Amino acid sequence: MWNIFVLKLNFYVIIVIRKRKGVFMGKIISVFNQKGGVGKTTTCINLSAGLGKMGKTILLVDIDPQGNSSSGLGINKSEVQVLLYDIITEDIDITEGIYTTSAENVSIIPSNNNLAGLEIELAKGGNWENTIKDTLDQIKDDYDYIFIDCPPSLGILSVMGLIASDSVIIPIQCEYYALEGVVQLVETMNLVKENYNPKLEIEGVVLSMFDGRTNLSIQVVEEVKKAFKSKVYSSIIPRNVRLAEAPSYGLSIMDYEEKSKGAESYLELAEEFLDLQD
Questions:
Q1: What domain range includes position 230?
Q2: 1: in domain
Q3: How far apart are CA 114 and CA 124, in angstroms?
Q4: Average pLDDT over the chain, rounded to whole?
């Protein structure tokens, strides 16, 4: 009996020591594509929700001034007292700007259009590069995964998101000109990697808005796989009316229509994402 107690005690001591050494430190991932309408926010919301359903603790950081991730998870931005802009500009404790969402195990730091002026403020002030990184490092240990919903641009906000991240998920829509701008996106990532964040890697590429009835969608999948090879997730997100409807109700697709093709696809993506983690 005493031996069992000692073994259990040693086990918990080892866990505490490992956590203090950062073994359980969360992973920060930017969801990024400077091209709009590619399923970036949809992926951010629903991948987060899918992982939350699987018991992972998720923080979504909305650094897009449009604030679509915030409203898409049931946050009324006009009623929120502390936004990301306030945390950065007024030196408010980050924990005061973290809110629970409509999705299980998913919290969010919301934003609104006030964030649009932040790029100019930071550019004037200088030394802006590590602003988001330093902010998120304070609570990185508290979550399994932190997803950053980047703006559809190559501006300061997106660059700060990349500097703060361990890796990047790139959503690409299965439509004409799908790879347009992707070369520039990768070049931006490489510049950030060379100058600010040497550990930055591509986590994976998500193919979205797939329509198996068209040759175009099939051709786009082939072209993206040629470009990114093993980095392309095998879980492909189809065109789905329910996916488009869910944000207007402030719900993830899993909470809005769990039996839809969109929900099934994002749950498959979440499972694949976890399977590929070290």
A1: 24-275
A2: no
A3: 16
A4: 89
Other CB atoms within 10 A of residue 14 CB: 10
User: Of 172, 180, 145, 148, nearest to 162 (Cα)?
Assistant: 148
Q: Which residue has the tokens 């051709």?
A: 219
Is the residue at 246 inside a domain? yes
Which amino acid belongs to residue 173?
A: Q
Q: Please give the backbone phi and psi of residue 99, each rounded to the nearest 5 degrees, phi first.
A: -125, 150
Task: Please indicate, yes or no, if residue 145 is contained in any of the structural domains.
Answer: yes
Instruction: Identify the CATH number of the domain in which residue 98 sits.
Output: 3.40.50.300
Weakest mean pLDDT among 118-122, 186-190, 256-260, 261-265: 118-122
Using DSSP bridges, classify how beta strands 99-100 and 106-109 pair: parallel, antiparallel or unpaired.
antiparallel
CA dist 164 → 24, 50, 131, 196, 213 (Å): 18, 23, 8, 9, 39
11 within domain boundaries: no
| Residue 64 φ then ψ, to 5° | -95, 120
Q: How far is CA 60 from the centre of its chain?
A: 6
